[in-house]
Specification:
Elements: H1 2-43, H2 47-60, H3 69-90, H4 94-107, H5 114-134, H6 138-151, H7 156-178, H8 182-195, H9 199-208
Helix pairs in contact: 1-2, 1-3, 2-3, 3-4, 4-5, 5-6, 5-7, 6-7, 7-8, 7-9, 8-9
Length: 209
């Protein structure tokens, strides 16, 4: 009787072992296919879905036992870096957008979104310069334009920034003149000719000389 009971227990243990092995296999197979789906979705640049799927993967799978979790988490981090910068861009918060794009480009120089990031880096810096000038922060605007012409010389915005520099000196000079700061205004008007590549700006300078 004891022998039969022992054999029965042994069979039950084997069955339980096989069931557990099957469940573990299904568990990791599902994780694997989910990770493959994340990779495909990432290549489609669908970051919102990537983040949702990775959150599920991280919730149910341990990084210590799931080798496919690491690349998925990296995809999520890259998406977050891009989405963060892009959200500022869409909100016209040019300084934060520029900083976010720079962070992305530094961390992911061969990233999936690097081409768009490089273009938007230059654009956001130019728009930031315009915003600074509109707020009468002339020196900061000029500094932004100078960085743009030096760091992004191949971008279309580089030429715009080159033309904006003398115009900003002119606007600054006019503002100083209106405040009665004639010497500082004259210095800025002189800088217009030094920096100017734009005939219209030069004509405006002569009008105020």
């Amino acid at each position: 009787i004891k022998s039969n009971a022992s054999k029965g227990n042994s069979k039950n243990i084997k069955k339980i072992g096989l069931v557990l092995l099957l469940l573990i296999t299904i568990y990791y197979t599902l994780g694997y296919f989910l990770s493959m789906t994340i990779q495909e979705t990432f290549q489609k640049r669908d970051c919102d879905t990537v983040i949702t799927l990775v959150n599920k993967l991280e919730k149910f799978y341990s990084p210590y036992y799931s080798p496919y979790l690491d690349p998925a988490t990296k995809n999520k981090k890259e998406c977050n870096a891009y989405i963060s910068a892009d959200a500022y861009w869409k909100n016209n918060t040019w300084d934060k957008a520029y900083e976010g794009y720079v962070v992305y480009a530094d961390k992911y120089p061969e990233g999936l979104f690097i081409e768009a990031v490089k273009k938007n880096e230059a654009k956001s810096l130019y728009f930031w310069g315009q915003e600074l000038e509109n707020n009468n922060e002339y020196q900061n605007a000029i500094n932004s334009y100078i960085v743009l012409t030096e760091k992004y010389s191949e971008s279309p915005e580089s030429l715009l920034a080159s033309n904006a520099i003398p115009q900003t000196y002119l606007d600054w000079g006019i503002a100083l003149e209106a405040e009665g700061n004639l010497n500082e205004a004259a210095e800025n008007f002189d800088l217009v000719l030094e920096k100017d590549n734009n005939s219209q700006c030069r004509d405006n300078h002569l009008h105020h000389s």
